[in-house]
Amino acid sequence: MAVETDSRDQLTAWVRSVSDADISFAPPSAAAAPGTSVNLYLLEMRGAMPLRPTRPDVRQIELSYLVTASAEDRVDAEQLLVNLCFAVMDQPALEVDLDPPPFALWEALGIAPQPCFRVSVAVRRQHEIEIRPVLHPLVVQPAPISTITGVVRTPDSVPVPDARVEVPLVGSYVLTDRRGKFRLDGIPGDRRPVRILVTARGREATRDLSANDDRSDVVITINPAEAVHA
Q1: What angle do CA 175, 179, 183 make, to 5 degrees?
Q2: Which fold does the domain 7-126 belong to in CATH?
Q3: Cα 137 from chain centroid?
């Protein structure tokens, strides 16, 4: 069964819980309609979070309406607006926004600013998803894991301790020991190219390993900003 929510039905039910005033979905105007009326003007459409991850067949957007009220007595109109505002707070499917709209909106509508607030309502539609049958049993193959070992040195072959050695591809890092040596575990072992990033005392250096490079005893040269002593 299709999941469908009509925003106007929800909004009409909310207004009817407060008043039997006329309801209009047209833009607000300077000329007040005879009698008492509530104006619900669609002001904005926004993307909304999915209904839930387990229902990818249901799409959802959020509609924001500008709410104004009019009556022969302005006090009655303001009281109706206040009652509507409190009533919407009891509606779990509706969300109220009391921040005033920008003055440019009233200029675009060609009317003076009016007391108002905004109400947002979610609208959902179901769309068809093609479900393909599984033709073969699922086979899970563990990915091979490898290790990279090496040493970080200065151009003068002085070991660099406490250098940060990381593989951005997997987000793991280690610090070199006092002899500048390091060991990186958990590296994909499918022989894809790997970039090693080294950071030491304000300087960075990189070393790219190709699929055919030896990944043991890798030597990385860096020139730290400060003198390093073995």
Answers
A1: 45
A2: STM4215-like (3.30.2000)
A3: 35
> Residue 106: which residues within 8 A CB-CB, separation 6 or more?
112, 113, 114
In contact, 18 and 86? CB cutoff 8 Å: no
Closest CA to 182 of 203, 207, 156: 207
Two tokens, residue 35: 């009698």
96-106 burial, b if ≥16 CB within 10 A, otherwise e? beeeebeeeeb
Does the global pTM surpass 0.90? Answer: no
Ordered by start, the domain boundaries in the chain are 7-126, 145-221
To which CATH superfamily is domain 145-221 assigned? Carboxypeptidase-like, regulatory domain (2.60.40.1120)
Asked if 184 and 163 count as a contact pair (C-beta separation under 8 A), the reply is: no
Instruction: Give 40-99 pLDDT, tens digit per residue.
Output: 999 888 876 555 555 666 778 889 999 999 988 889 999 999 999 999 998 888 889 999
